[in-house]
Specification:
Blueprint (H helix, E strand, L loop, with lengths): L1 H30 L2 E4 L6 E6 L5 E5 L4 E5 L2 E6 L3 E3 L6 E8 L6 E2 L5 E6 L5 E9 L2 E17 L2 E17 L4 E16 L10 E10 L4 E3 L2
Antiparallel strand pairs: 1-6, 1-15, 2-5, 2-14, 3-4, 3-14, 5-7, 7-9, 7-10, 8-9, 9-11, 10-11, 11-12, 12-13, 13-14
């Protein structure tokens, strides 16, 4: 009787210990998501188009495109460990082209663009391998202004962007013909852009003080 009781108590203890270990391991796995190391103590970053590259916006309905040789972005990416890859970095200001160096488009048109007031673009991490993080951009909303054959064109483009990677060793954020954008409105744009059209965006940005993003 005593031996049976001892065996039962031993089995119960071993089972409880195993369950506790499993729960602890599961909790550790859930907590060990993503790590961001930002050399700027303020948690901010700045980036610009990689030298020798252009940012390209394409209206996939009209097949018309705008190419920008200048582009800047800035935002926040605080150092820390995060359970989710959503919004590891946020772009709070961005611009493409300028009055002195606009972005050429079709039929002699020229454009500039800025991130819409109040808009914040989230850089979302989905997977990690060999120092490269793959993910998406969300919350995109950009105001586009251009001079066309009909006068001043104003358009708003918004949505999410796929096919985004960030490489730790180079500090480059690459948007490889990301889809998911839509033309919300297009006024006086000579048919180059039309409300409801889909759009893609391609660009490579160089982060001035590279972030390091890792995931177990």
């Amino acid at each position: 009787m005593r031996n049976s009781l001892r065996r039962a108590l031993f089995a119960t203890t071993v089972t409880a210990a195993a369950l506790g270990f499993a729960a602890t391991s599961a909790s550790a796995t859930a907590l060990a998501g993503w790590t961001v190391v930002n050399p700027n103590a303020s948690g901010t970053f700045t980036a610009s188009l990689k030298a020798g590259t252009v940012a390209t916006l394409v209206d996939t309905n009209t097949s018309q495109q705008v190419d920008c040789s200048t582009g800047t972005a800035s935002g926040t990416a605080p150092s820390g460990t995060y359970t989710s890859g959503a919004g590891l970095a946020k772009i709070t200001a961005a611009a493409w082209g300028s009055t002195a160096s606009p972005c050429p488009g079709p039929l002699g048109s020229n454009f500039t663009a800025v991130l819409a007031p109040g808009a914040v673009i989230s850089i979302n991490a989905n997977t990690y391998s060999g120092g490269v993080t793959s993910g998406t951009l969300s919350g995109v909303k950009v105001n586009l202004t251009g001079d066309t054959i009909l006068g001043t064109c104003k358009a708003v483009i918004s949505g999410n962007v796929s096919n985004v990677t960030y490489t730790n060793s180079t500090g480059e954020l690459n948007i490889n013909t990301g889809s998911g954008l839509k033309v919300d409105s297009a006024d006086n744009c000579a048919g180059l852009l039309n409300a409801g059209d889909s759009a893609t965006f391609k660009a490579t940005y160089k982060v001035a003080a590279p972030l390091t993003i890792t995931s177990p």
